[in-house]
Amino acid sequence: MPTLSIDTLKRFSLVVLLTGAGHLISLIFYPVANGYVQDYDLVKIAEFESLSLILLSILGFGINATATRDVAISKDYKAIISSVQSARLTLAVILFIAAFIYGLVFQFTLPVYIVLMSPIFSLNYDFILYGVGKPTLASIVSFFRLSLPMLLCFFVMFFYQLDYSLFVIINVLFVFVSSYLVSNFLKTDIFFPLRFDFYTAYYSALLVGVAGVVISIYRFGYLSFFIGRLSDSDIITLAFFSKFCLVVVAARRIVLQFFYTKIATDTKSFRIDIILFAGALFLLFALFLFGDFLHSYVPSGDGSINIITACGLALFLILSTGTSDSKILLWRKDYHFFIIQVLPFVVGVCLIFVLGFSLYSVVISLLCIEALTALFNQCYVFYCVKMRLV
Fold it and tell me: Per the domain annotation, does 67 fall within a domain?
């Protein structure tokens, strides 16, 4: 466990404050907007966020994670940024051309418009900031990119009228500006040359890339699939549940990314895992203690499941994963990382088809995925350490 100096604690507190405030804003968006924004526009906003997350995972496709890992153990981070961003931007241009042709031949729908935004989304590489040991800057940029547009949307919905098209414009604008901030902080370019061999970068991270897309789907991207199959109220409830899960994921990521370089040099330590597990128990108790009070403030959908209880279980399962997935990536065991992420997802999808399409079946399936992922991750890490495979 790294020594916590006063300066480290101050920087860590700032990261927690900014990231926590940002995700809290994101979490309360749907419950608050439910009283100000029409259901049609709110569902469209959920669809935009869902598809955007999938698009970002496709553009990153594993090279985001491997680049962060490589930067953490390399001094020449500018060369890594250039290689990764050239590949991402090239793929984004290809997706843009394909979407434009599709729109001309068939129809320009919201999913098509989102793919057309690929070049803008590809410009941001704030994930590199964690690899170079600048978590505070990363949290500032993240707050600017994700939270300020949400605050602006709150202002619009309270004093004017917020629809999904305005929500999209505001968020895309802030993505572009935050990309400039990242390049300015790192003293690097914002635009990089296209490369014809871009596929080599993606191929080298193929397994991690597929796993990343799978994670983006079951964390929030799945919503776009259920729009039209479930009621608007159920979609809004699922959006809140998934936002809550993302908040917990972000809380865990704060710890992992802040101490990422330390974890990289001491992968056999389980002290941070124990802290996260203890935190999970405490937060689970607190959530259940105030469950009845909170239930009246969150979307409940068709009422087939207690969403606060589901949130509590998700919180416990996500934090129980600890540092295991990061260690597996640091050990470069990409194949096992792939299996651990994909297998629970397949089980969850099968469970949905068995239980039927409903709010209850989706939430149960998501909890099952989180439970199996946490179990497989931790078991594999313990196995590797015990058998001295690392």
Answer: yes
